[in-house]
Amino acid sequence: MSHGRILVVEDEPKIAALLRDYLVADGFEVEHRERGDGVVAAIRMNAPDLVLLDLMLPGVDGFTICRELRTFSTLPVIMLTARVEEIDRVLGLELGADDYVCKPFGPREVVARVRAQLRRVRLRGADGVPKLDVVLDAERFEVRVRGVCLILTPVEFRLLRVLLEHPGRVHSRNQLLNVIYADHRVVSDRTVDSHIKNLRRKISGSVPGYDPVQSVYGVGYKFDETV
Question: Mean pLDDT across the chain, nearest whole number?
């Protein structure tokens, strides 16, 4: 029984073959494309369960592909790249990538990340709503964590809401700032750190030992429902 179908978009034959071998050995079906052009159209016709996407591709680059995918699909995307600068990581995640792996990488690590992303998808119900320990009611402006009601400020509420919309996805500080301040005021990106600190304090204060809002060094924050 297949664990899922993975689309590998990678122009380096040796890397693509290595990923295919390890994924197949782990029970996945694998489709490979070595160019970026045609990838979005192929996904529209027959979407895989997850995409392993190289950034530097002939035809159409991975950034453009990811941006187009996020206009119609929420399928998990893991970016593969040799570009290790922080700005590249942040840009990839802001475009909607769920994870980011820098070359050279161990194939076992990539397989583990694939399995982790697919677990997060399967934690969602048939209606696409995450099966989490946090319930957010936007109409009533209420949040319950494991049944305990939290009192949040409007900014904290919006911050938690955007993190909950895509569990496991890393959001940069700038991306979060654009969401939590509707008036687009000019503030330091470190303001997010302060709000995150207060949000985590309120969650752990209501449910000791539960800390689902996680920091990703050098990039931003994510909601990890597995914590």
Answer: 82
